[in-house]
Amino acid sequence: MKRLSFILFVILILGAGCSANHESESGGVWNYQEGYVAVKDEANSQLLVVREKVANLENKKIEQILEEAEPDAVWLKVTKKQYGSVNEGDHVKVSIQGGIDQSYPAQAAVDSIEKK
User: Fold this and answer.
1) Each residue of 58-70: pLDDT tens digit?
2) Distance (Å, rounded) from C-alpha 49 to C-alpha 91?
3) Each residue of 40-51: b (16+ CB within 10 Å) or e?
4) N or C, fewer C-beta in 10 Å, the chain?
5) Reduced to 3 DSSP states, what percent helix, strand and coil does the chain have, rounded to the nearest 5?
6) Do 77 and 45 meet the contact criterion of CB atoms below 8 Å apart?
7) How far apart are CA 70 and CA 91, in angstroms?
8) What is the rounded distance in angstroms from the CA atom of residue 60 to the CA atom of residue 107?
């Protein structure tokens, strides 16, 4: 009986620890459709977009930006034209093409992107 109780306790603890909660301090779950361009990666034709504007963006490394933005950051694969249409710091509205890889940071392809 003690063994069964212990096993149930372990399962309960592991289940609670593994639950995914993508709510940020800003409240609610971010839908990746609006945010701020934090990093432009020309070699891979992608943009790092975060939910909240990053202060002192030009003085921060990608690792710092991701740490501050967690869990609200997404690498977006864009076309060359889309890449050239936005700058770091721009507030953008995004339409995602297909699904979103829920790693951190998330990853997705862009159907359209426009400055707000």
Assistant:
1) 899 999 999 999 9
2) 9
3) beeeeebbbbbb
4) N
5) 30, 35, 35
6) yes
7) 18
8) 21
Q: 3.40.47.10, 2.130.10.10, 3.90.950.20, 2.40.50.140: which CATH number matches 31-115?
A: 2.40.50.140
Residues 6+ apart with CB under 8 A from 96: 32, 33, 76, 108, 109, 110, 111
Name the pLDDT band for 91 (thresholds 50, 70, 90). very high
Q: Are 93 and 113 contacting, i.e. CB atoms less than 8 angstroms apart?
A: yes
Q: Which two tokens stand for residue 93?
A: 């509205």
Q: How many residues does the chain have?
A: 116
Residue keyed to tokens 């593994």: 18
